[in-house]
C-alpha cells in the first residue's frame, strides 16, 4: 500500500501550531502532520516556544494570520482561559484550555471555522469571485472592515487522560484511590475528571499548596462524595499520576520524595511526560514492581479530538498513533546509541 502524498506547501496551506515553554519535547507536529497527509489535507502543524508573558500576543498573532487552530501545553492552559474570546463548555467544565479554534462570523451571524471560508477573508472576496468590482475606499480613505474573527477555547485533555488510563493501564477508575502530583493546568483537569469517574479517594500534592487547595475545594463543591485529601496517603493507592513537568529534562529529580510515599505502595504509575519515553519516575516505578505507562496515549487522544475540532473530519487514529510511536520510541533508541 503506497504512502499518502503530502500536498506541497503553497499560499493556500492552512496552519495549526502548538505553543509551549519549553516546546522542543513536543511530538504533536509528527502526529498532526501525519494525519493531515493521510487525509490529503493541505494543512501543516508547527511548534513555537512562547513565554507566558507573550501568550496573549502569540494567540492574537495566530488569529491575525488566519491560523486554523492552536494547541497549548505547559504552562499556558489556565492562563489562556482569560485570553481567548469564547470558551467552549469543555473549557468551562475543566477550567483549562489546551485547544483553540479560530472562527469567522458569517453574514447571517453564525460562527464557522476559518477553513469553511475562502482563503481570502476580506469583505470583497465573494464579490471578486462573482466578478463584482471591489468596494472603493470612502472619502477618508478607509477600507471596509474585515469580517469578525474570534478564538474559541476547548479542552480535550480530560477525555484523553481518562481514555488513556483505561487503555494503557487497564484501570477501573470507579472506586480507585489516586495520588495526583501537580495541580497546574493538566493536573487540575485530571483531578476533576477523576472525580467525575467516581474515584473513592483523591490525594493532591503540589509544591504550591494554594493550587492544590483550590482544586480540592472545587472537587468538594462539585463532587462531595469523592474524598479529597491534601498531601500523601498513609497506605497503598491504585494509581499514582504525575501531572508535573518533572521528567522532561534528563537531570530532573523525581516528582516525589519516596520517604513520604514509597513507590511500591502504588499499584500503577502513569506519567503524563512522554519524552523521554521512560522517565526517571517510570524507571523507579517499574523497579518497584508497579505497572507503568507514559503520557503518549493521552497525547494521542487529546490530539485526535483537537484534529476533529479544527477540520470537522474523523481523526485517523491509527496513523496518528504510528507517527507518535515512531517519533518518541525511535528517537529514544537513537539517543541511546
Account of the 3D structure:
- The protein has 337 residues and is of the alpha/beta class.
- The protein has two domains: 149 residues, Leucine Dehydrogenase, chain A, domain 1 (Rossmann fold); 142 residues, NAD(P)-binding Rossmann-like Domain (Rossmann fold, 3-Layer(aba) Sandwich).
- It is built from ten helices and 13 strands.
- The strands form two sheets. Strands 1, 2, 3, 4, 5, 6 and 7 form a seven-stranded mixed beta sheet that branches.
- Helix 5 packs across helix 6, helix 5 crosses helix 9 and helix 6 runs parallel beside helix 7.
- The C terminus is likely disordered.
Key traits:
Rossmann fold, 6-stranded parallel sheet, alpha/beta, 13 strands, disordered C terminus
Just give the CATH class of the largest domain: Alpha Beta
Shape: globular
Q: Main beta sheet: strand number and arrangement?
A: 7 strands, mixed
**What's the number of extended β-strand segments?**
13
Beta strand % = 15-25%
Tally of separate helices: 10
What distance lies between the first and last C-alpha atoms, to the nearest angstrom?
31 Å
CATH topology of the largest domain: Rossmann fold
Mean pLDDT: 90
Instruction: Give the low-confidence spans.
Output: 123-132, 134-139, 332-337
Q: From the helix content, strand content and strand pairing, which structural class follows?
A: alpha/beta
Report the radius of gyration as a whole number of Å.
22 Å
Count structural domains. 2
The CATH superfamily of the largest domain is identified as Leucine Dehydrogenase, chain A, domain 1
Name the CATH architecture of the largest domain. Answer: 3-Layer(aba) Sandwich
Amino acid at each position: 500500500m503506497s504512502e499518502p502524498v503530502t500536498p506541497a506547501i503553497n499560499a493556500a496551506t492552512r496552519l495549526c501550531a502548538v505553543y509551549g515553554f519549553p516546546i522542543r519535547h513536543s511530538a504533536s507536529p509528527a502526529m498532526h502532520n501525519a494525519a493531515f497527509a493521510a487525509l490529503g489535507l493541505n494543512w501543516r502543524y508547527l511548534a513555537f516556544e512562547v513565554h507566558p508573558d507573550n501568550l496573549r500576543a502569540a494567540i492574537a498573532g495566530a488569529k491575525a494570520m488566519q491560523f486554523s487552530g492552536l494547541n497549548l501545553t505547559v504552562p499556558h492552559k489556565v492562563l489562556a482561559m482569560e485570553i481567548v474570546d469564547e470558551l467552549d463548555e469543555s473549557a468551562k467544565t475543566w477550567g483549562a484550555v489546551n485547544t483553540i479554534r479560530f472562527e469567522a462570523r458569517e453574514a447571517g451571524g453564525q460562527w464557522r471555522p476559518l477553513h469553511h471560508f475562502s482563503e481570502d477573508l476580506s469583505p470583497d472576496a465573494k464579490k471578486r469571485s462573482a466578478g463584482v468590482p471591489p468596494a472603493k475606499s470612502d472619502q477618508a480613505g478607509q477600507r471596509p472592515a474585515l469580517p469578525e474573527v474570534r478564538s474559541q477555547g476547548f479542552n480535550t485533555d480530560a477525555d484523553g487522560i481518562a481514555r488513556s488510563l483505561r487503555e494503557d493501564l487497564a484501570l477501573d477508575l470507579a472506586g480507585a484511590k489516586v495520588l495526583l502530583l501537580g495541580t497546574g493546568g493538566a493536573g487540575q483537569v485530571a483531578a476533576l475528571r477523576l472525580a467525575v469517574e467516581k474515584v473513592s479517594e483523591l490525594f493532591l500534592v503540589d509544591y504550591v499548596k494554594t493550587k492544590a487547595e483550590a482544586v480540592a475545594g472545587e472537587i468538594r463543591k462539585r463532587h462531595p462524595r469523592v474524598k479529597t485529601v491534601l498531601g500523601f496517603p498513609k497506605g497503598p493507592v491504585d494509581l499514582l499520576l504525575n501531572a508535573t513537568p518533572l521528567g522532561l529534562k534528563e537531570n530532573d529529580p523525581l516528582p516525589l520524595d519516596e520517604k513520604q510515599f514509597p513507590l511500591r505502595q502504588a499499584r500503577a504509575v502513569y506519567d503524563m511526560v512522554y519524552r523521554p519515553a521512560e522517565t526517571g519516575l517510570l524507571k523507579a516505578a517499574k523497579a518497584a514492581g508497579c505497572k507503568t505507562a507514559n503520557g503518549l496515549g493521552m497525547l494521542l487522544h487529546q490530539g485526535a479530538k483537537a484534529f476533529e475540532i479544527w477540520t470537522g473530519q474523523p481523526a485517523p487514529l491509527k496513523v496518528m498513533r504510528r507517527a507518535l510511536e515512531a517519533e518518541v520510541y525511535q528517537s529514544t533508541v537513537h539517543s541511546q546509541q
